[in-house]
Amino acid sequence: MKTAGFVMIVGLALSCAAAQDATVSGAKSNILALEHAWDQAQERGDATALAAIFDNSLVYVDYDGTLLTKAEYLARVKSNATHMQQIVADEMSVQVFGDTAIVVGTYRAKGVENGKPYLRRGRFTDTWILMRGHWMCVAAGTTPILR
Amino acid sequence: MCGDWCEVGMEGGGGVAKFFYVLLVLLATSGLGAESGAQPDGEEARILTLENAWNQAVQQKDAAALKMLLASDLIYVEYDGTLMNKAEYLASVQSPALRPARIVNESATVHLYGAVAVVNGVCRESGIKNGRPYALRERFTDTWVRRSDSWVCVSSQSTLATH
Fold first, then answer.
1. Which of B73, B145, B157 lies at the smallest CB-CB distance from A141?
2. A56 contact B CB<8A
3. Spatial contact of A28 and A96, defined as CB atoms under 8 Å apart
4. pLDDT tens-digit readout, B27-83
5. What is the pLDDT of residue B38?
6. In the CATH hierarchy, which top-level class contains the domain B4-160?
7. Contact B159/A61, CB-based, under 8 Å?
8. Which domains does chain A have, with CATH numbers?
9. Global model pTM greater than 0.90
10. How many angstroms separate the CA of residue B34 from the nearest CA in chain A?
């Protein structure tokens, strides 16, 4: 009887752990998909698509330390003065802390700013929060990789 | 942004001062020092206290205090793009080559999302690194998560503010 009870408890624990793993792994997949969608929308200059994945309270820290709100960031994406032709993210990893996730990764971006071409390499950190069943980005920042 | 208690409490850097400092960090992280039924303002104040405590702990090379403030799975991105985990960050703070003389938050804003807080601000740091004076102005973004009744930082990123 004791053995059966023990097996049942272990089974329950394993199934709970597996369910939790599935949730975490599902969250990671969702967030990585959103990160890729973000890159693609940025290349297309698609502010509408971007607006859907950012919370209204978004704080965005640009490559040069400039702080942008969601509206400012979207305006810049739409602006003719800045055009990001290509952005490739790699080394992305997601850490999930319940309803919060942190994505850290590196990227290479190529584009034109104020008529001048640029090529940048940076490290980014994005904070995502699960809100009403959807992952929304509340903070994002990039830092140039200097070494 | 560093309150008077930071300046007064840490002067001298003796054993008693360190004891009270660690006690203050404990109170701030555990919420025991907060008023009962704390409103968002109270939580924001707690987070800002923790931010100031972090600055002081770096300045004092106080690994014990830092360990309490930072999650074991911390993600830390330095202003030069270096990625560090908690152990690497603690080692970098304790490096004898780094002697920060002053770390002050010029500004800091807290956005609260229930058990998550995002702090964005500007920090000025100066001191001696590898025998040479340095002065940095960085914009930082820190994400704090409430675990039980304590706040711990899970992610921190700095970017040099060039203008």
1. B157
2. no
3. yes
4. 555 544 444 444 447 999 999 999 999 999 999 999 999 999 999 999 999 999 999
5. 42
6. alpha beta
7. yes
8. 2-144 (3.10.450.50)
9. no
10. 24
